[in-house]
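Hi support team,

I submitted a single chain yesterday and got back a structure, but I'm not sure I'm reading the token output correctly. Could someone confirm the output below corresponds to the sequence I sent? I've pasted both exactly as they appear in my results page.

Thanks,
R.
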Amino acid sequence: MRQTPFLLLGAGLIVQFCQNPKQVPVVEAKPIEPAVVKFACRGTSPVLWLVDIYPDSIVYERGGGKKLVYLKRMEEKKGDTTVFNTRLNLYDKESKMTIKIIPDSCSVGHDAQKFPYTAIVERDGDVLNGCALGADPK
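Hi R., thanks for writing in. Yes, this is the structure output for that exact sequence:
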């Protein structure tokens, strides 16, 4: 019966708050705005990878490993292509990444689903090819 002191303490707190409801702090909950993904890029070659581009950051994941968060550095238009350049200090080494979003129909692997953009990700010498969805510009 070592739980008895805790049960009595819990019961005492409940009685205290029920007798003095003004002492219970009231916290107004504000809704959390979901982060808006500007582009969601996916690929399967050579392994499954994803890159999500947010207004202030870029999330990179490859092969189900750890997600890396790059601060969004630079976005530029080169014709119809949107190019994002970013870098991250990772284990005392600089990691550079360039993402090119090209408005061209694309499908990933054997999936029949078509995506409106082709994505090319160049990160530290590796090149990943895939597809992307873009956020509604409205």
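A quick pointer for reading it: Residues 1-18, 20-32 have pLDDT under 50 and may be disordered. Let us know if anything else looks off.

Best,
Support desk
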